[in-house]
Specification:
Layout (H helix, E strand, L loop, with lengths): L1 H7 L2 H12 L5 H6 L5 H13 L3 E6 L2 E6 L2 H12 L3 H19 L4 E7 L3 H9 L1 H8 L1 E4 L7 E6 L6 E11 L3 E6 L12 E10 L2 E9 L4 H24 L14
Pfam family, one: AHSA1
InterPro entries: ArsR-like_HTH, ASHA1/2-like_C, HTH_ArsR_DNA-bd_dom
Organism: Streptomyces osmaniensis
């Protein structure tokens, strides 16, 4: 138990456990891509977690996969939490969550589509300026490195960007996170929303999940709720058939 408490005392090791909770069975390279730290340092932290039995490993060919082992955490809960005021703590936790949600929660829109393609082709369709111009009516322009600026530029030759933002995470071909803002609000971070593209392969298809969060209000959520399905339907058509749908889907009347 001492090793478990020691392992949990470090913020980096807690973040590694969070990453495995989100997506269990990751390689060292996949974990390093989400942690701003050298491979050697991440390896040392994983060693501490393995010694505490919080992480177990399995070899798949030449890849070493890391899995979260929740058993020690369950033992802590049984020994230190369940027998001490567990019902009261659950009530207090629920009150805290509701209070936090009331104070900070902003509308979020999530859309999932399945595409007969590969993660690499879907990634390119989201980031290549020419491909986005073909199905979106705008070119997404950036070098797509974390921290870089990106622009959603009109294709009419004006060079006008209707949306700008920053690349937060860029893990080709599985995950892209960017902020979104109107050009005149670029310096007002509290006005920015955030879009996450999660790309997962299953056999010969890809599941693309788009999460647009930190929206200003329900009116903005309604706008993106009609915009994203139209854009992603056009993307799906382009990748599966080689051409976009005959009419621009975002121009179709809502009713």
């Amino acid at each position: 138990m001492d090793k478990v408490f020691k392992a949990l005392a470090d913020d980096t090791r807690r973040r590694l456990l969070d990453r495995l909770h989100e997506d269990n069975g990751q390689t060292l390279g996949e974990l390093c891509a989400r942690i701003a730290m050298t491979r050697q340092s991440v390896t040392q932290h994983l060693g501490v977690l393995e010694a505490a039995n919080l992480v177990s490993t399995v070899w798949r060919g030449r890849e070493k996969l890391h899995y979260l082992n929740p058993v020690p955490l369950h033992e802590i809960q049984e020994r230190w939490i369940d027998k001490f005021e567990s019902p009261r703590l659950r009530v207090l936790g629920a009150v805290k969550r509701r209070a936090e949600e009331a104070m900070t929660d902003k509308p979020t829109f999530v859309y999932v589509t399945y595409i007969e393609s590969t993660p690499e082709k879907v990634w390119d369709a989201l980031t290549d300026a020419d491909l986005t111009a073909a199905y979106w009516g705008h070119s997404n322009v950036s070098d797509w490195r974390p921290g870089s600026r990106w622009e959603h530029v009109r294709t009419d030759g004006s060079g006008i960007a209707d949306v700008v933002g920053t690349v937060v995470e860029s893990e080709r071909p599985t995950r892209l996170v960017t902020t979104w803002a109107a050009p005149d609000e670029e310096g007002q971070e509290d006005r920015h929303s955030r879009v996450t593209f999660d790309i997962r392969q299953h056999a010969e298809i890809v599941r693309l999940t788009v999460t647009h969060e930190d929206l200003a209000d329900e009116s903005e959520r309604a706008d993106v709720s009609s915009g994203w399905p139209a854009v992603l339907s056009n993307l799906k058509s382009l990748l599966e058939t080689g051409h976009v749908v005959p009419q621009e889907p975002w121009l179709m009347p809502a009713h």
